[in-house]
Amino acid sequence: MRPGRPGRGRRLQRRTTSCSHRGATPRPSRTPRAPAELRDLWAGKTVRRVNGEGRKVEVGTYPRPGQGALDLWLTCSSDPRGFEQAGALGLHVLTGLLFQQVEGLVPRVRAYLVARR
User: What are the residues facing 50 on neighbouring strands?
Assistant: First the structure.
């Protein structure tokens, strides 16, 4: 942005920004469709988004990724439903042992593997 042109940067940002939190749905309800959208973007397809001015726009990735397939991970902790959801969506799981014991992780991993099949 050049000096002496107040407001120009904000106008440009409203036109080009498609990541808006206005009207955003909670993460658990977005999770099931997010992997498919990410894989489509990775494959060179576009997705429709609403930009900062409220207009629907096609969004894609540039430059094109060099890696053929995209490995997706879902962060899960103590809720077994997160592990099941990751398995059902074909995602990998990232978890930690800060607030859980290895023995408590066994049923969650089992639920993940059952859902992954």
Answer: 56
Cα 26 from Cα 1, distance rounded (Å) = 34
Tokens of 49: 């988004």
Look at residue 116 and give its three-state secondary structure: helix
Confidence band (pLDDT; 50, 70, 90) for 12?
Answer: very low
The percent of residues in the chain predicted with pLDDT above 90, rounded, is 33
Q: Are 64 and 44 in contact (CB under 8 A)?
A: yes
Tokens of 114: 């059952």
Planar angle of CA 61, 38, 34, nearest 5 degrees? 140
Buried b (16+ CB within 10 A) or exposed e, 95-104: beeeeeeeee
Alpha helices in 17-96 (DSSP H): 27-30, 34-42, 80-88
**φ/ψ of residue 92, rounded to 5:** -80, 165
Kindly list the domain boundaries of the chain, sorted by start residue.
23-67, 71-117
Rg (the chain; Cα; Å): 19
